[in-house]
Design goal:
7 strands, 14 helices, 14% strand, single chain, globular, Rossmann fold, binds magnesium ion, 7-stranded parallel beta sheet, binds guanosine-5'-triphosphate, alpha/beta
Length: 307
């Protein structure tokens, strides 16, 4: 299978993704080389805040305009997601009838610290296949919501008015990563008060963007146009300031980094790893031992290549 084949239809895209998940690095590399610069939107927020509902409403509008839309759900295989993922599928079903929408949930396989190693590869496949906008939904717990920043051009943080004060509503980490804060379920609780509180704690992003706050009632389709408008505004800000290239480079670097981590993980599963444990325990610096592992990794490849 080559990159031209994966561009054809949803079925071959799905097949390509499965191949990549099974370790086809050649295809992952081709996808990386083929990226065109799709707009990637990371969506994070506490479980049940309405991320999937919001994405499906936004995506529906874009799909009706004829845009090619990818939706990736990171499934942490956590106790939260058992029923929720099924719920997502039902809600997303109406989107599935559009040939220009591709939906996939990515299992992290319970990997500690968030998203699958292959998440950036999968984004790259969709990008290479000419998708305009790609949504990545991550549950706002732990590392994956921070990691999503490395792939996304725009980060949406979904919050709800029913959770405690603003300190609990927006976690410190989210304040750093959010470009647009969406107060969803504003039909429940004192939404306007929450917006005021939140406005006070907004901090300018490092790139000069001032995060926006918007309220929505996703189930009633309220606030969706405003969210879309803000996404466009953020996109224009990024493009106007020449920051899009940086974002793309960041995604490329993150893709490569995930491959390196994946290789490391495979090596650390090796039984011979006992040798390295002994080395560290008997006084060798961890960093030196890692250098040795890397070196042997290279030698190992060489040997395999000659076989
Ligand atoms: N009242 C109200 N309910 C909403 C709103 N948006 C979503 N919901 C409901 O909240 C529940 C959770 O919505 P989801 O879209 O699955 O939330 P999520 O953030 O994707 O959930 P996880 O993927 O489990 O983290 C569903 O029953 C939705 O119908 C809203 O604006 N108001
Ligand atoms: Mg969801």
């Amino acid at each position: 299978m080559n990159i031209a084949d994966i561009l054809k239809d949803r079925k071959s895209i799905a097949k390509a993704i499965t191949e990549i998940e099974e370790g086809n690095t050649e295809l992952a590399t081709e996808a990386l080389r083929g990226i065109r610069g799709a707009w990637v939107i990371g969506v994070t927020g506490v479980p049940g805040s309405g991320k999937s509902t919001l994405i499906s409403k936004i995506a529906l509008k874009l799909a009706l305009e004829g845009k090619k839309i990818g939706i990736l759900g990171i499934d942490p295989t956590s106790p939260f997601s058992g029923g929720a993922v099924l719920g997502d599928r039902i809600r997303m079903r109406e989107l599935n009838k559009f040939e220009n929408v591709f939906i996939r949930s990515i299992s992290t396989g319970g990997k500690l610290g968030g998203m699958s190693y292959h998440t950036p590869d999968i984004v790259n496949v969709l990008d290479a296949a000419g998708f305009d906008t790609i949504f990545i939904e991550t549950v706002g717990t732990g590392q994956d919501e921070v990691d999503v920043m490395n792939i996304a051009n725009t980060v949406l943080v979904v919050i709800v008015p029913t959770l405690g004060d603003e300190v609990q509503v927006i976690k410190a980490g989210q304040l750093e990563i959010g470009d647009i804060f969406i107060l969803n379920k504003s039909d429940q609780g004192a939404a306007d008060e929450k917006i005021k509180e939140m406005t006070l704690i907004m901090k300018e992003r490092k790139d000069g963007w001032i995060p926006r706050i918007v309220k929505s009632v996703a189930v009633r389709n309220q606030g969706i146009d405003e969210i879309l408008r803000l996404i466009v505004e953020h996109r224009e800000f990024i493009e106007r300031n020449g920051l899009k290239k940086n974002k793309l480079r960041q995604r490329i670097l993150y893709t490569i980094k995930q491959h390196a981590l994946n290789r490391m993980d495979e090596i650390m599963k090796n039984e011979e790893i006992e040798v390295y444990i002994e080395k560290v325990m008997s006084g060798k610096d961890i960093s030196k031992v890692i250098d040795e592992i890397m070196l042997e990794m290279g030698v190992g490849y060489g040997k395999r290549g000659k076989d």
